[in-house]
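In response to reviewer comment 3 from the previous cycle, which asked for concrete evidence that the modeling workflow produces usable outputs, we include below a single protein chain processed end to end. The sequence was submitted unchanged, and the resulting structure tokens are shown without manual editing.
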Amino acid sequence: MVNDTDILVMLDNAGHLRPSERGMTLREMVRRDVRKLIDGLVLIDIRWKKIGDTMAKELADLLRKCSKVYELDLRDNLIGCIGCMEISKALAQNHSCCLHTLNLSGNKIADLGAAVLSSMIATNTSLTHLDLSGNKLEQQAMQGIGGGLRGNSTLHTLILDENYFSDDGAIELGWALSYNHSLRKLTLCGNVTCAPLSCVFKSSCFLCLCTSAWARGGEVAFGSILTGSIP
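The workflow returned the following structure tokens.
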């Protein structure tokens, strides 16, 4: 039986690396310095496979060599702060990287992983879509991500749903957006905040909040969806 960290993958003719019922193991694929793989790989879609930090590190080694990967989907893979650090460092060190979509949702990178990720965000010039929902991020992580946003000029969409931050974390993001002019969509669904965010998010960002309890200008909405363009 193949272990979760030795899942079978296949690289198709379009350059998409995905799990497969036949092919070589992910570990073999990553460790082989195959020029065809490095030159042709454009998308990595390894979701829901519980690869953990060990395989995340090996994928990071692959990312250091690849210049054409535009999308990396690693959602729900039990990746912790160590795996997140390795991926972040790989993207920062690959100066020819063209990645525009990174999905790390449903992992467990926590505040420490977010701190390293924020440094990458600050210097990255290709990433446009970042999903960090469901990662147990608290206020400290929002401080780091806010710092990253201040230096970023390409990110358009940031998804931070179902994390653990509340008022202070949301306010950190609000202040960051006063310096950031590229972000167009920010979602904070599932984070309990009662901060008057209409006074904080003074940007052209499209804000989406879907929380159990969220107050805006004194009005509390329970179990509703609040969306809008913040003036």
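The first strand starts at residue 8 and ends at 11. We consider this sufficient to address the reviewer's concern, and the full set will be provided in the supplementary archive.
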